[in-house]
Amino acid sequence: MIQAVIFDMDGLLIDSEVISLAIYQNLLSRFGCSFTKETYAAHYSGRTEEANVKRLLATYHLDWSFEQALENVYAEEAKLISQGVALKSGAKELLEDLISRQVAIGLATSSVKERALTILNQHHLLPCFDQMVFGHEVEHGKPAPDIFIRACEKLGFEPKECLVLEDSESGVQAAHAAGVPVICVPDMKRPSSETLDKALATLDSLHEVRVFLNN
């Protein structure tokens, strides 16, 4: 029986992947570089901002230090987030359903804490979560299992007693490596069939997740 559900945030709970894509496109355009949705989905989705900035600098040979690049990313992101970030369809209904059934709820996000709390607070969702783990709390980001192992520890349940909800390939791989059953709800890019074979199910929306869990 599932005792706890652990949510990813970006691309799963909130519709923020489009914002991250826009940030990198805007910044790279200053250097005359193009950046596609396919590139973002393949190499940047589900990873920490620090890891993505390092990849951008190495790939596009930008004339910025790591600190300058990260500062520009955060400034661009703060501007876009202040305009509001949409929840994924079915998110509130799923959270309310889990709360009504007294299932523990966790958050395991590669995001920095301040950013995640700001976005969740826009939708008054902070009280929904029993425990949260942020990217800076673990040594290795997804697809390493660290963040989900830590989430299970904080929730007080064994990995097999929990369920992860993820959208990205690296997230599904991380949950599987942690020994936690995972449902994939693809966002910008559908993970490979090899990765999806590691998932308990692949569903099209959080509405479908709610139906699946109630059956």
Compact summary:
This protein has 215 residues and is an alpha/beta fold. 47% of the residues lie in helices and 10% in strands. Helix 1 (17-29) crosses helix 4, helix 3 (49-60) packs across helix 4 and helix 5 (91-100) runs parallel beside helix 10 (206-214).
Looking at this protein, list some descriptive labels.
215 residues; alpha/beta; Rossmann fold; DNA polymerase, domain 1; six-stranded parallel β-sheet; 6 strands
Describe this structure in words.
- With 215 residues, the chain is of the alpha/beta class.
- It folds into two domains: 4-15 and 86-214, 3-Layer(aba) Sandwich (Rossmann fold), CATH 3.40.50; 17-81, DNA polymerase, domain 1 (Orthogonal Bundle), CATH 1.10.150.
- The protein is built from ten helices and six strands; from the N terminus they run E-H-H-H-H-H-E-H-E-H-E-H-E-H-E-H.
- It has helices at 17-29, 37-43, 49-60, 66-81, 91-100, 113-122, 146-155, 169-177, 193-196, 206-214, and strands at 4-7, 104-108, 131-133, 162-166, 182-184, 201-202.
- It has a six-stranded parallel beta sheet with strand order 3-2-1-4-5-6, with helices on both faces.
- Helix 9 (193-196) links the parallel strand 5 (182-184) and strand 6 (201-202).
- The chain is globular and about 50 Å long.
- This is Phosphorylated carbohydrates phosphatase.
- It comes from Streptococcus merionis.
- InterPro entries: HAD-like_sf, HAD-SF_hydro_IA, HAD_2, HAD_sf, PGP-like_dom2.
- Its EC number is 3.1.3.-.
